[in-house]
Amino acid sequence: MSGGVDSAVAAARAHEAGHDVTGVHLALSRNPASYRSGARGCCTIEDSNDARRAADVIGIPFYVWDLSERFHADVVEDFVEEYAAGRTPNPCLRCNEKVKFAAVLDRALALGFDAVATGHYAQVLDGAQGPELHRSVDEGKDQSYVLGVLDARQVSHAVLPLGASRKSDVRLEAQERGLAVADKPDSHDICFISDGDTGGWLAERLAERELAHAGAIVDESGERLGEHEGSYRFTVGQRRGLRIGTPAPDGRPRYVLDIEPVSGTVTVGPRASLEVTSLSAGRPVWCGPAPAGSSLEGPGVAVQLRAHGAAHPASVTWSEDALAVALHEPAEGVAAGQAVVVYDGTRVVGSATITGTAR
Length: 359
Prior knowledge:
The protein has 359 residues and is an alpha+beta fold. It has helices at 5-16, 45-58, 68-84, 91-110, 152-156, 167-176, 198-208; strands spanning 23-27, 62-66, 116-117, 122-127, 130-135, 158-159, 215-218, 224-228, 255-260, 265-269, 276-286, 295-296, 301-304, 311-318, 322-331, 339-344, 347-358. The chain has 3 domains: 5-119 and 161-183, Rossmann fold, CATH 3.40.50.620; 213-272, Adenine nucleotide alpha hydrolases-like domains (SH3 type barrels, Roll); 274-358, Translation factors (Elongation Factor Tu (Ef-tu), domain 3).
């Protein structure tokens, strides 16, 4: 129970369905004052209090589990290291993979529980070969992308009570149940960066490791256009904050095309140069039984490249430790470190971490 409306209603529904439910809030900060303040629904002391009050209204036991060391090692440190390497990580995916459905699930099973229930907007449906992860009915709130890192075992122990609901109905239900979090805003920021200044936060951590250094901003021909204070301040597809005094020859905006972390070189160019038609990825994870064969294609096959991004029709091939995606139409702003999640219709087939792209 994060302290937000979704997990509160998910707990209430599971309890009402007759399950023996225990509410658990995760203490993820080694120093709570250093994480985001304000009631935003994830990791603050206020959120813990909100979760406890919701559990009291529902009438279920409530505990706080301290997983701050695990979160720091597997999510926060991973976030820093990925940016230092010129990649663009998604800490929410890593948290689901390493904390909520690994550390929490393992502890829950050891204590005799059968599953972990969360307020994610996605569905676990019975399939011919076992439980399958599917998109939410509410496409605007669908969170199956951030659950695409779960393996078949984890999916089989996941309960997602909100997958067939719309967010507006969930808020209304929370009001009817007397849950004070009914109107609480959704959380959008990175929970461990209290002021939302990702660049400044990274600058402090990377400076401590002597990994933060200035570099050049160049165009596709290699011409030097300016300087920056650290490549970690950029991600592929970024337009704002380049601070290049020289306009592009056609007067149009430039975008970040590539980040080379060793030299600190950031390459920029026109929007058209952001387009990619294929990508490679490593560490494939299957959300159900591993697909037969070594390829997947057809009218329902697509990939998603961002948490709230569009689905891109594609053909996918894989080996034991790599995945290759051929996009039917170009996509923009695809960065190494992001997850590519593979779908067959509404079913989540699996995911992998992007390692490279090509036009």
